[in-house]
Specification:
7-stranded mixed sheet, 5-stranded mixed sheet, mainly beta
Amino acid sequence: MSSTTTTTKTTKSLSVVKRESFFDDSFFTDAWDDFDKAMQGVLDKFDDTGLKVDVGSRNHCRDVYTKIRSSKIDEDLYASQALQITEKDGKFQAVMDVKDFSPNDLQVRVVEDRVVVEGKYHKQSEDGSSVSSKSFYKEFTLPNGADIDSVSTALSKDGVLTVRAPKREGGAQPAGALTSNQSSVQQQQSSSVQQSSNSSVQQSSSSVKKVSVSSTSTFSSSSDF
């Protein structure tokens, strides 16, 4: 007589704490440099004027970044999104721009040893003849040293989301665990566009980055006429 063992995944929805503007709220102080780096990555990719983000140029650089994001988001939700993942001061942290996603449609969950962030983006054409919707899904697999039970998240009113997991108290990170200089992670994205004619276009790409936390992203879009 055979027996079947069913494994149930532990899932916990996190409450997203609403805060003031990202660079005006001291709560986010330790994430400011991370977001600067995230913006720099987008500027390096799309801006050819050589802008460098620092405290003095931050506001101007953010304006340029915002324009890039607005012009590129319909082409690819991921490519122009400011996102930085770090391990520092014993904590694991992700900071990302989710300004274009409705806070009401934004969800953050802990699933086993992973943090999942989901959101939806809707845009209506200027003449109102079509509506485009895109779903955002990002998954972070935290290193063994992270305290999964203490993951917290906060959202600034200007749309910057932080996800934090402190290092497990009294538990040193195991040898061979991911570090910011050693780990490499594959990020994948796919997008599809569907129209009323049932035609569809699918695109996918992947890139490899050295970060301390792994992530995957999947996007979909649809237009209704």
